[in-house]
Structures are given as C-alpha cells and as structure tokens.
Amino acid sequence: MNHDYIKKFNLIDQYVLGKLTADEAEAFEDHFIDCRKCVEQLNITRSFIQDLKGLAVQQTLFSENRRAPMPRWWHLQLVPLRSWAVIACCCVLAAGVFAFFVIRRFTQMEAELLQAKQDASTIRQQYQRGLETAADSEKQHQQAKQQLTQRLDELEQKLKSEAATNQSSVRGSEVPEVNFPIYALVSVARGQAPAPVEISPPASSSRFALSVPVEDRKDFSSYRVKILDHRGVTVFNRSGFKPDAYHTLSLSLNWNLLIPGTYDLRVEGLTPPNNWDTVGIYPFRIARRR
Ligand SMILES: [Zn+2]
After folding, report:
1. Three-state DSSP state, 2
2. How far, in Å, is the centroid of ligand 1 from the Cα of 123?
3. Boundaries of every domain in the chain
4. How far is the centre of ligand 1, averaged over its atoms, from the C-alpha of 6 (Å)?
C-alpha cells in the first residue's frame, strides 16, 4: 500500500472510524509506521474526533445540570428532556464530522484541480513542441523540394543546350564544303584498253565530285548513272540526270560509299518508253585514303 493510494481513497479517515477490514488496517499500519505525512494526518483526524466527542460529553453534562428547574409541561413530553440533550449532542457531533469530511474532500478536490491544471499545461507544452517539430519538418520538406526543383531546372537547361549542340552538329553536315575535289572521268573508246582515272581521297574532305562528259543526244529523255565494282556488282544506281550546258553530268559522292578498288561508271540514256542504251563507260580507281 503506498501513500497516493491511501490519500486517494481516504484510508486515514476510514481507519480512524474503524471502517477498514483487518487486512487493510494491517497494510495501512505497515505503511504509516514509516510515513511521516500519514502519521501527522492520523493524529489530526484523531484529535479532531476526540474534540468532537469531548464537546458532546460537555453538552450532555450541561443539560443534566439544567434539568432541575424544568417546567412542569416537560413531564408531559413523550421524549424525556435528557434524551433531547443526547440527540442534540449527536446532531452536533454528526454535523462536525460531516463538516470535517466536507472540508477534507474540498481540499482534496482543490489539489486534484491543481494537478489537472498542471497536467493540462504539460500537455499544452508537448502540443506546442509537436507543432514546432511539425513546422521544422515542413520547412525541411520545402527546402528539399526547392532543391529538387532547382536540380530539375538545371537538368532541363542542360538537355536543351545539348539538344541545341546536337542540332548544330547535324546542321554542320549540311554546311557546304568548299574545295572538295572534282575528278573528270574519261570514256573508254571501243576497242581500247581501259585506263582508269586515279582518285585519291584527301584527309581534309568527306566528299568528292565526278564530272562525266556525255554525248548529248536528243532522243534520250534522261540519263542514268551506274557504278559497278571489279566483280560487276552495282554499288550506285541513279536515274534522272540531264547533261548541263557543257554536255557534262555531275555527281557528288561520299568517300565512304566506295572502298579502295577499281570501278566502272556506266552512263545510259533512256529512249521512251523503256529502252536504255549505253552512252559511255568511265573506269576509275579509288586509292587508299591519305
Ligand atoms: Zn503515507
């Protein structure tokens, strides 16, 4: 049994009034031997009860002394005067005990109220701290979000600039090349041994042009150009050419279209509707890149 339990259930009062069971009384005695507060309270309660009892006795004696000059009509009362005095004393005693316990209860309630106020204050402080913590974490969240947004913006900018760079490099391949080499091919006359034109790709240029002189005949509606490698495999075939004012076909090629080796360029003329005649054969040799 501990002090709070005793205080909560008013065990001191009940002990003095003899309302505890034998076990409870024993447990209480075990406690209050070592508890100064309980001993003090016990003494206060006891002396109060003693005082009330003394008062009751005095009241009784006082009414005994006053019995002699009792008026005659008192003898006719159903309840004797002595009993009235005892009843009055009992009432005073009961009122005193009642007042004592009411005051005790009031004091206890005041203490409980104070305790409740302290608890409420503690809870309010905890709530305030909780709010502050929440505000802190919200702030951190906002900062993280801001950093993330900034990082995203940076990445987006970087992507845009890279895309722009790529586009400009793509456009770079469309930029006209200056001074790319032009090779004039020569047609092989019938019955002559082919003498291929030597073509040497320079390191500085990715393209070269072939200039092919052709016999301009009115009956050809257009010309087509074929390039065959040394095994006779066609590596280039395009139609729709027309000779220029100098009776020449011009075509430009990428170096990577043709690997080093010997080729024949064949020009054919179209007679409608679908008749192709050979105009000329122009042998050339691609050398290894310098
Ligand atoms: Zn105690």
Report:
1. coil
2. 28
3. 35-137, 182-286
4. 7
**pLDDT at site 72:** 52
The pair phi, psi for residue 60, each rounded to 5°, is -65, -50
The partner residues of 248 in beta bridges, in order of sequence, read 213
Amino acid at 208: F
What is the C-alpha to C-alpha distance for residues 270 and 226, in angstroms, rounded to an integer? 13
Alpha carbon of 36 to ligand 1 centroid (Å): 7
Question: Which stretches of the chain score pLDDT less than 70?
Answer: 62-80, 166-177, 290
- Return the number of other C-beta atoms located less than 10 Å from residue 235's C-beta: 13
- Check: CB of residue 279 under 8 Å from CB of residue 215: yes
Per-residue pLDDT of 79-96, as tens digits, reads: 667 788 888 888 888 888
Assigned token pair, 11: 């065990």
Kind and range of the H or E run holding 70:
none
**Answer CATH for 182-286 from 3.50.30.10, 2.60.40.2550, 1.10.287.130, 2.60.40.10:** 2.60.40.2550
Q: Residue 247 in contact with residue 218, Cβ under 8 Å?
A: no
Closest C-alpha to 88, from 68, 64, 60, 110: 60
Measured between alpha carbons, how far is 155 from 29 in angstroms, rounded to an integer?
80
How many angstroms does the Cα of residue 101 sit away from the middle of ligand 1? 19
**CB within 8 A of 109, min separation 6: which ones?**
none
- Decide if 268 contacts 281 (C-beta within 8 A): no
The Å distance, Cα 94 to ligand 1 centre, comes to 27
Q: Which two tokens stand for residue 71?
A: 């008026």
Report residue 127 as tokens.
């709530």
* Ligand 1 centre distance from Cα of residue 9 (Å): 12
Backbone torsions φ then ψ of 244, nearest 5 degrees: -85, -170
